[in-house]
Predict the structure.
Amino acid sequence: MGSTNTVATRYWSPLEDGRVQCDLCPRHCRMADSQRGLCFVRGREGEGVVLTTYGRSSGYCIDPIEKKPLNHFLPGTPVLSFGTAGCNLTCRFCQNWDISKSREIDTLADEAPPEVVARAARDLGCRSVAFTYNDPVIFLEYAVDVAKACHALDVKTVAVTSGYVCPQPRADFFRHIDAVNVDLKAFSEGFYRRLCGAELAPVLETLRYLKHETDVWLEITTLLIPGENDSEAELRRAADWVVENLGVDVPWHFSAFHPDYKLLDLPPTPPETLRRARAIAKERGVRYVYTGNVHDPEADSTACHGCGALLIGRDWYELTAWNLDHSGACRACGTHCPGVFEDRPGRFGRRRQPVRLADFAARDRNAETRPES
Protein backbone atom coordinates (compact mmCIF):
# COMPACT_ATOMS: atom_id res chain seq x y z
CA MET A 1 0.00 0.00 0.00
CA GLY A 2 3.01 2.31 0.19
CA SER A 3 3.31 5.19 -2.30
CA THR A 4 4.69 8.70 -2.54
CA ASN A 5 1.28 9.89 -1.29
CA THR A 6 1.33 7.73 1.82
CA VAL A 7 2.23 9.23 5.20
CA ALA A 8 2.23 7.78 8.69
CA THR A 9 -0.48 8.88 11.12
CA ARG A 10 -0.52 9.12 14.90
CA TYR A 11 -4.16 8.35 15.65
CA TRP A 12 -4.12 4.60 16.23
CA SER A 13 -3.51 2.07 18.98
CA PRO A 14 -2.43 -1.62 19.00
CA LEU A 15 -4.90 -4.33 19.96
CA GLU A 16 -4.16 -7.57 21.78
CA ASP A 17 -5.27 -9.69 18.81
CA GLY A 18 -2.57 -8.18 16.58
CA ARG A 19 -4.81 -5.73 14.78
CA VAL A 20 -4.54 -1.96 15.12
CA GLN A 21 -7.39 0.42 15.87
CA CYS A 22 -7.77 3.73 14.06
CA ASP A 23 -8.57 6.42 16.63
CA LEU A 24 -9.34 9.28 14.25
CA CYS A 25 -13.13 9.02 14.39
CA PRO A 26 -15.71 7.31 16.60
CA ARG A 27 -15.97 4.45 14.12
CA HIS A 28 -12.69 3.01 15.51
CA CYS A 29 -11.98 0.73 12.56
CA ARG A 30 -9.90 -2.33 13.49
CA MET A 31 -7.52 -3.52 10.81
CA ALA A 32 -5.22 -6.42 10.09
CA ASP A 33 -2.19 -5.85 7.86
CA SER A 34 -3.01 -4.21 4.50
CA GLN A 35 -6.66 -3.65 5.45
CA ARG A 36 -8.27 -0.23 5.13
CA GLY A 37 -10.86 1.46 7.28
CA LEU A 38 -14.35 2.29 6.11
CA CYS A 39 -13.14 5.65 4.79
CA PHE A 40 -10.79 3.63 2.51
CA VAL A 41 -8.04 6.26 2.65
CA ARG A 42 -6.60 5.31 6.04
CA GLY A 43 -5.23 1.80 6.35
CA ARG A 44 -2.93 -0.59 8.17
CA GLU A 45 0.66 -0.66 6.98
CA GLY A 46 3.21 -2.50 9.06
CA GLU A 47 2.55 -1.75 12.72
CA GLY A 48 0.65 1.49 12.19
CA VAL A 49 -1.97 3.37 10.18
CA VAL A 50 -1.19 5.49 7.15
CA LEU A 51 -3.03 8.09 5.08
CA THR A 52 -2.90 7.12 1.40
CA THR A 53 -4.08 10.37 -0.21
CA TYR A 54 -1.62 12.95 1.11
CA GLY A 55 -1.14 15.69 -1.46
CA ARG A 56 -3.79 14.34 -3.84
CA SER A 57 -7.08 15.99 -4.75
CA SER A 58 -10.29 15.24 -6.60
CA GLY A 59 -9.98 18.71 -8.14
CA TYR A 60 -9.68 22.39 -7.25
CA CYS A 61 -12.20 25.14 -7.87
CA ILE A 62 -12.59 28.79 -6.91
CA ASP A 63 -16.03 29.26 -5.33
CA PRO A 64 -17.87 32.09 -3.60
CA ILE A 65 -17.48 31.64 0.15
CA GLU A 66 -21.29 31.67 0.45
CA LYS A 67 -21.35 28.31 -1.36
CA LYS A 68 -19.70 26.47 1.57
CA PRO A 69 -22.14 27.80 2.97
CA LEU A 70 -20.67 30.58 5.12
CA ASN A 71 -22.64 33.82 5.24
CA HIS A 72 -20.85 35.58 8.10
CA PHE A 73 -17.24 34.88 7.11
CA LEU A 74 -15.56 37.27 4.66
CA PRO A 75 -18.72 37.75 2.54
CA GLY A 76 -18.30 38.06 -1.19
CA THR A 77 -14.76 36.68 -1.25
CA PRO A 78 -13.41 33.80 -3.37
CA VAL A 79 -12.30 30.57 -1.72
CA LEU A 80 -10.07 27.90 -3.27
CA SER A 81 -11.96 24.64 -2.62
CA PHE A 82 -10.74 21.08 -2.81
CA GLY A 83 -11.32 17.60 -1.45
CA THR A 84 -9.71 14.17 -1.78
CA ALA A 85 -11.54 10.85 -1.83
CA GLY A 86 -13.41 8.72 0.67
CA CYS A 87 -15.52 9.48 3.76
CA ASN A 88 -16.01 8.16 7.29
CA LEU A 89 -19.82 8.26 7.03
CA THR A 90 -22.06 6.18 4.78
CA CYS A 91 -24.82 8.70 4.03
CA ARG A 92 -27.35 7.17 1.65
CA PHE A 93 -28.26 10.66 0.40
CA CYS A 94 -24.71 11.91 -0.23
CA GLN A 95 -24.73 14.62 -2.89
CA ASN A 96 -20.98 14.39 -3.49
CA TRP A 97 -21.00 10.58 -3.62
CA ASP A 98 -18.75 10.37 -6.69
CA ILE A 99 -16.00 11.91 -4.54
CA SER A 100 -16.79 10.89 -0.98
CA LYS A 101 -17.59 7.27 -1.86
CA SER A 102 -14.77 6.88 -4.35
CA ARG A 103 -12.30 4.04 -3.90
CA GLU A 104 -10.41 4.90 -7.06
CA ILE A 105 -7.56 6.63 -5.25
CA ASP A 106 -5.30 6.52 -8.31
CA THR A 107 -7.77 8.61 -10.33
CA LEU A 108 -7.42 11.63 -8.05
CA ALA A 109 -6.89 14.55 -10.36
CA ASP A 110 -4.32 17.01 -9.08
CA GLU A 111 -1.23 16.53 -6.98
CA ALA A 112 0.16 19.48 -5.03
CA PRO A 113 2.29 19.94 -1.92
CA PRO A 114 0.76 22.16 0.79
CA GLU A 115 2.98 25.13 -0.14
CA VAL A 116 1.74 24.99 -3.75
CA VAL A 117 -1.89 25.05 -2.62
CA ALA A 118 -1.23 28.07 -0.40
CA ARG A 119 0.69 29.99 -3.08
CA ALA A 120 -1.97 29.22 -5.67
CA ALA A 121 -4.70 30.56 -3.37
CA ARG A 122 -2.74 33.75 -2.74
CA ASP A 123 -1.85 34.28 -6.39
CA LEU A 124 -5.45 33.64 -7.49
CA GLY A 125 -6.73 36.28 -5.07
CA CYS A 126 -8.51 33.84 -2.75
CA ARG A 127 -8.92 34.99 0.85
CA SER A 128 -9.26 31.40 2.05
CA VAL A 129 -8.82 27.73 1.21
CA ALA A 130 -11.69 25.32 1.91
CA PHE A 131 -11.38 21.62 2.70
CA THR A 132 -14.68 20.37 1.29
CA TYR A 133 -16.44 17.97 -1.14
CA ASN A 134 -15.50 15.10 1.21
CA ASP A 135 -14.81 15.31 4.92
CA PRO A 136 -11.38 16.82 5.73
CA VAL A 137 -11.22 14.84 8.96
CA ILE A 138 -10.10 11.78 7.01
CA PHE A 139 -7.20 13.64 5.35
CA LEU A 140 -6.34 15.52 8.53
CA GLU A 141 -2.55 15.38 8.14
CA TYR A 142 -2.66 16.89 4.65
CA ALA A 143 -5.27 19.48 5.63
CA VAL A 144 -3.23 20.62 8.65
CA ASP A 145 -0.07 21.03 6.55
CA VAL A 146 -2.02 23.00 3.94
CA ALA A 147 -3.48 25.19 6.71
CA LYS A 148 -0.03 25.93 8.11
CA ALA A 149 1.23 26.91 4.66
CA CYS A 150 -1.85 29.09 4.10
CA HIS A 151 -1.48 30.95 7.37
CA ALA A 152 2.16 31.69 6.54
CA LEU A 153 0.83 33.62 3.51
CA ASP A 154 -2.11 35.27 5.33
CA VAL A 155 -4.66 32.98 3.67
CA LYS A 156 -7.50 31.76 5.91
CA THR A 157 -8.73 28.17 6.13
CA VAL A 158 -12.26 26.75 6.05
CA ALA A 159 -13.51 23.25 6.88
CA VAL A 160 -16.80 21.75 5.73
CA THR A 161 -17.30 18.68 7.89
CA SER A 162 -19.76 16.32 9.50
CA GLY A 163 -17.92 16.79 12.79
CA TYR A 164 -17.54 13.03 13.29
CA VAL A 165 -14.11 12.95 14.94
CA CYS A 166 -12.48 11.91 18.22
CA PRO A 167 -11.40 14.52 20.81
CA GLN A 168 -7.60 14.57 20.29
CA PRO A 169 -7.58 14.74 16.47
CA ARG A 170 -10.46 17.20 16.71
CA ALA A 171 -8.31 19.58 18.75
CA ASP A 172 -5.27 19.01 16.52
CA PHE A 173 -7.32 19.78 13.40
CA PHE A 174 -9.39 22.76 14.44
CA ARG A 175 -6.52 24.72 15.98
CA HIS A 176 -5.49 25.36 12.35
CA ILE A 177 -8.95 26.27 11.04
CA ASP A 178 -10.46 29.78 10.84
CA ALA A 179 -14.07 28.94 9.94
CA VAL A 180 -16.17 25.80 9.81
CA ASN A 181 -19.56 24.70 8.60
CA VAL A 182 -20.70 21.57 10.41
CA ASP A 183 -23.30 19.33 8.82
CA LEU A 184 -25.94 18.68 11.49
CA LYS A 185 -27.66 16.04 9.40
CA ALA A 186 -30.64 15.50 11.69
CA PHE A 187 -31.53 15.59 15.36
CA SER A 188 -32.19 11.92 15.99
CA GLU A 189 -29.88 8.99 16.66
CA GLY A 190 -32.14 6.81 14.51
CA PHE A 191 -31.54 8.97 11.44
CA TYR A 192 -27.77 8.93 11.94
CA ARG A 193 -27.65 5.16 12.42
CA ARG A 194 -30.05 4.27 9.60
CA LEU A 195 -29.02 6.75 6.91
CA CYS A 196 -25.44 7.72 7.85
CA GLY A 197 -24.01 4.68 9.62
CA ALA A 198 -22.95 6.96 12.45
CA GLU A 199 -24.12 8.50 15.73
CA LEU A 200 -25.46 11.95 16.59
CA ALA A 201 -23.80 12.38 19.99
CA PRO A 202 -20.20 12.87 18.74
CA VAL A 203 -21.41 15.54 16.30
CA LEU A 204 -23.07 17.45 19.12
CA GLU A 205 -19.86 17.16 21.14
CA THR A 206 -17.91 18.67 18.23
CA LEU A 207 -20.37 21.55 17.96
CA ARG A 208 -20.11 22.33 21.66
CA TYR A 209 -16.32 22.08 21.48
CA LEU A 210 -16.10 24.48 18.54
CA LYS A 211 -18.37 27.04 20.15
CA HIS A 212 -16.97 27.03 23.66
CA GLU A 213 -13.33 25.91 23.37
CA THR A 214 -12.10 27.50 20.12
CA ASP A 215 -12.13 30.81 18.26
CA VAL A 216 -13.19 29.11 15.00
CA TRP A 217 -16.09 30.90 13.31
CA LEU A 218 -18.97 28.37 13.30
CA GLU A 219 -22.00 27.93 11.07
CA ILE A 220 -24.19 24.83 10.69
CA THR A 221 -26.17 23.25 7.86
CA THR A 222 -29.06 20.80 7.82
CA LEU A 223 -30.14 19.15 4.58
CA LEU A 224 -33.90 18.66 4.97
CA ILE A 225 -35.10 15.32 3.57
CA PRO A 226 -38.87 14.92 3.19
CA GLY A 227 -40.28 12.54 5.79
CA GLU A 228 -36.88 11.84 7.35
CA ASN A 229 -35.70 14.86 9.36
CA ASP A 230 -38.17 17.64 8.60
CA SER A 231 -40.91 17.17 11.19
CA GLU A 232 -41.85 20.22 13.23
CA ALA A 233 -41.20 18.34 16.46
CA GLU A 234 -37.65 17.42 15.43
CA LEU A 235 -36.93 20.91 14.16
CA ARG A 236 -38.12 22.42 17.45
CA ARG A 237 -35.91 20.04 19.44
CA ALA A 238 -32.93 20.85 17.26
CA ALA A 239 -33.51 24.60 17.50
CA ASP A 240 -33.87 24.43 21.28
CA TRP A 241 -30.60 22.49 21.51
CA VAL A 242 -28.81 25.00 19.28
CA VAL A 243 -29.99 27.98 21.35
CA GLU A 244 -29.16 26.31 24.67
CA ASN A 245 -25.77 24.89 23.66
CA LEU A 246 -24.46 27.17 20.91
CA GLY A 247 -26.33 30.41 21.54
CA VAL A 248 -28.58 32.52 19.34
CA ASP A 249 -25.88 33.90 17.02
CA VAL A 250 -24.63 30.76 15.23
CA PRO A 251 -25.94 30.96 11.64
CA TRP A 252 -28.02 27.95 10.55
CA HIS A 253 -28.56 26.96 6.91
CA PHE A 254 -31.46 24.73 5.81
CA SER A 255 -30.75 23.19 2.40
CA ALA A 256 -33.00 21.45 -0.08
CA PHE A 257 -32.51 17.74 -0.77
CA HIS A 258 -32.62 16.30 -4.26
CA PRO A 259 -32.74 12.55 -4.92
CA ASP A 260 -29.22 11.17 -5.26
CA TYR A 261 -26.94 8.19 -4.63
CA LYS A 262 -28.96 5.54 -2.74
CA LEU A 263 -31.92 7.70 -1.76
CA LEU A 264 -33.68 8.05 -5.10
CA ASP A 265 -37.22 7.20 -4.02
CA LEU A 266 -37.93 10.45 -2.16
CA PRO A 267 -39.07 13.75 -3.72
CA PRO A 268 -37.02 16.96 -3.64
CA THR A 269 -37.55 19.21 -0.64
CA PRO A 270 -40.42 21.66 -1.28
CA PRO A 271 -39.45 25.33 -0.80
CA GLU A 272 -42.24 25.69 1.77
CA THR A 273 -40.50 23.07 3.95
CA LEU A 274 -37.39 25.24 4.06
CA ARG A 275 -39.42 28.32 4.88
CA ARG A 276 -41.23 26.46 7.67
CA ALA A 277 -37.93 25.22 9.14
CA ARG A 278 -36.52 28.73 9.01
CA ALA A 279 -39.59 30.12 10.77
CA ILE A 280 -39.39 27.47 13.51
CA ALA A 281 -35.71 28.13 14.16
CA LYS A 282 -36.29 31.88 14.35
CA GLU A 283 -39.31 31.43 16.65
CA ARG A 284 -37.14 29.35 19.01
CA GLY A 285 -34.57 32.15 19.14
CA VAL A 286 -31.98 31.53 16.40
CA ARG A 287 -31.22 34.97 14.95
CA TYR A 288 -29.60 34.10 11.63
CA VAL A 289 -31.33 31.39 9.61
CA TYR A 290 -30.87 30.84 5.88
CA THR A 291 -32.14 28.56 3.12
CA GLY A 292 -30.04 26.88 0.45
CA ASN A 293 -30.36 25.15 -2.93
CA VAL A 294 -33.44 27.27 -3.72
CA HIS A 295 -33.86 30.82 -4.98
CA ASP A 296 -35.05 32.87 -2.01
CA PRO A 297 -33.26 36.24 -1.76
CA GLU A 298 -35.07 37.18 1.47
CA ALA A 299 -34.04 33.96 3.22
CA ASP A 300 -30.49 34.27 1.84
CA SER A 301 -30.03 37.80 3.18
CA THR A 302 -28.86 38.96 6.61
CA ALA A 303 -31.06 41.29 8.66
CA CYS A 304 -30.09 43.21 11.79
CA HIS A 305 -31.48 41.47 14.87
CA GLY A 306 -31.68 44.87 16.56
CA CYS A 307 -33.75 46.96 14.15
CA GLY A 308 -34.55 44.59 11.27
CA ALA A 309 -32.63 46.60 8.67
CA LEU A 310 -31.05 44.75 5.75
CA LEU A 311 -27.36 44.23 6.49
CA ILE A 312 -26.21 41.96 3.67
CA GLY A 313 -28.40 41.38 0.64
CA ARG A 314 -27.88 38.19 -1.36
CA ASP A 315 -29.32 36.79 -4.57
CA TRP A 316 -27.98 33.26 -4.89
CA TYR A 317 -24.27 33.90 -4.24
CA GLU A 318 -24.28 37.51 -5.42
CA LEU A 319 -24.11 40.30 -2.81
CA THR A 320 -26.78 42.94 -3.55
CA ALA A 321 -26.49 45.16 -0.46
CA TRP A 322 -23.94 45.95 2.28
CA ASN A 323 -24.94 47.99 5.32
CA LEU A 324 -22.27 47.09 7.88
CA ASP A 325 -19.78 49.67 9.11
CA HIS A 326 -16.06 49.04 9.51
CA SER A 327 -16.63 47.35 12.90
CA GLY A 328 -19.31 44.94 11.63
CA ALA A 329 -22.20 46.91 13.12
CA CYS A 330 -25.53 47.91 11.59
CA ARG A 331 -25.28 51.36 10.01
CA ALA A 332 -28.88 52.08 11.00
CA CYS A 333 -28.81 51.30 14.73
CA GLY A 334 -25.26 50.28 15.63
CA THR A 335 -26.13 46.70 16.68
CA HIS A 336 -23.16 44.38 16.18
CA CYS A 337 -23.55 41.53 13.69
CA PRO A 338 -21.51 38.48 14.72
CA GLY A 339 -19.08 37.18 12.15
CA VAL A 340 -15.71 37.76 10.50
CA PHE A 341 -16.01 40.84 8.31
CA GLU A 342 -13.60 43.16 6.55
CA ASP A 343 -14.13 46.85 5.90
CA ARG A 344 -15.47 46.11 2.45
CA PRO A 345 -17.22 43.03 1.08
CA GLY A 346 -15.67 40.98 -1.69
CA ARG A 347 -17.01 41.21 -5.23
CA PHE A 348 -16.38 37.71 -6.49
CA GLY A 349 -20.05 37.04 -7.25
CA ARG A 350 -21.59 33.68 -8.11
CA ARG A 351 -19.13 32.38 -10.68
CA ARG A 352 -17.24 29.12 -10.29
CA GLN A 353 -13.75 28.69 -11.71
CA PRO A 354 -12.01 25.29 -12.00
CA VAL A 355 -8.26 25.42 -11.40
CA ARG A 356 -5.43 23.03 -12.25
CA LEU A 357 -2.89 23.17 -9.47
CA ALA A 358 -0.57 21.03 -11.54
CA ASP A 359 0.11 24.20 -13.51
CA PHE A 360 1.23 25.99 -10.35
CA ALA A 361 3.39 23.04 -9.32
CA ALA A 362 5.02 23.00 -12.77
CA ARG A 363 5.66 26.73 -12.55
CA ASP A 364 7.41 26.24 -9.20
CA ARG A 365 9.53 23.40 -10.61
CA ASN A 366 10.52 25.51 -13.58
CA ALA A 367 11.48 28.39 -11.27
CA GLU A 368 13.67 26.06 -9.23
CA THR A 369 15.52 24.71 -12.28
CA ARG A 370 15.86 28.03 -14.15
CA PRO A 371 19.56 29.07 -14.23
CA GLU A 372 20.51 32.28 -12.47
CA SER A 373 21.36 35.18 -14.74
